[in-house]
Design brief:
The protein has about 240 residues and is mainly alpha-helical. It has eleven helices and three strands; from the N terminus they run ααααααααααβββα. About 30% of the residues are buried.
Length: about 240
């Protein structure tokens, strides 16, 4: 079995035009090395990025009908970034098949995260051109299926207190209130428990080694709870 056939096996997609597959694997360093107008994978990467964004945006839009643009955008950014795309590229062992300049190869180009991420996106673009949007979408969902399976609520990023306030302000001008309800342990190893309230109702509790971390955990728990409730109201079958 040829190297390209083995790769197509891993991709779960057989190209009608193997020239496109070879192009996905052609690193820009080849053009620099040869000093000529050699085609490489950057145009396919550009196309693949757009197809990837569209497919994952649609899945998030349908999976979280109660979420607004901001949280959906942040969720997509968590799913699709250079680090995660490099992980997918490494999982498909794309580095083994890359066509690199000798210098790039000697300097570890096959395992360079940027090269793996770019090549993964180029494959998305090539599948789109070769088999159409549905073929590209099927490939994307196979690759990201596990990540979507783990998303029961929209992912929360770095600032849960800010996210909670933004979520609540969509319906009320009242800000959430935080209260420390207990602290325990010696001075050098305290554990704080905090509640978060809105409209006189306790939303959730959190604990942490500082008041700030306990408040963040409470906000995170409240967000998960509220977003799950919102999704259930939007889809009564849940």
């Amino acid at each position: 079995m040829s190297d390209l056939a083995v790769l197509q096996n891993r991709l779960g997609y057989v190209f009608r035009d193997e020239g496109l597959l070879r192009l996905t694997l052609t690193h820009p360093s080849i053009a620099h090395e040869q000093g000529a107008a050699v085609q490489h994978n950057q145009r396919l990467e550009f196309l693949g990025d757009a197809v990837l964004q569209l497919a994952l945006t649609r899945e998030l839009y349908e999976k979280f009908p109660g979420s607004d643009e901001g949280p959906l955008t942040k969720a997509r950014a968590k799913l699709v970034n250079r680090r995660t795309l490099a992980v997918h590229g490494r999982g498909l062992r794309l580095g083994e098949c890359l066509i690199l300049s000798r210098g790039e190869d000697l300097h570890g180009g096959r395992e360079r995260p940027s090269a793996l991420a770019d090549t993964f996106e180029a494959h998305v673009g090539a599948i789109f051109l070769d088999g159409g949007y549905e073929a590209a979408r099927d490939f994307i969902l196979r690759e990201f299926g596990a990540a979507f399976g783990e998303l029961n609520v929209i992912p929360i990023l770095e600032n849960p207190k800010g996210e909670l306030q933004e979520f609540l302000q969509a319906h009320s001008s009242e800000a959430p209130q935080y209260h420390v309800v207990s602290s325990s342990g010696p001075d050098h190893d305290r554990l704080f428990e905090c509640t978060v309230h809105h409209g006189g109702v306790e939303l959730a509790r959190g604990s942490g080694k500082s008041k700030k971390s306990a408040e963040s955990e409470a906000a995170l728990a409240a967000l998960k709870k509220l977003r799950k409730e919102t999704n259930c109201r939007a889809d009564p079958r849940r």
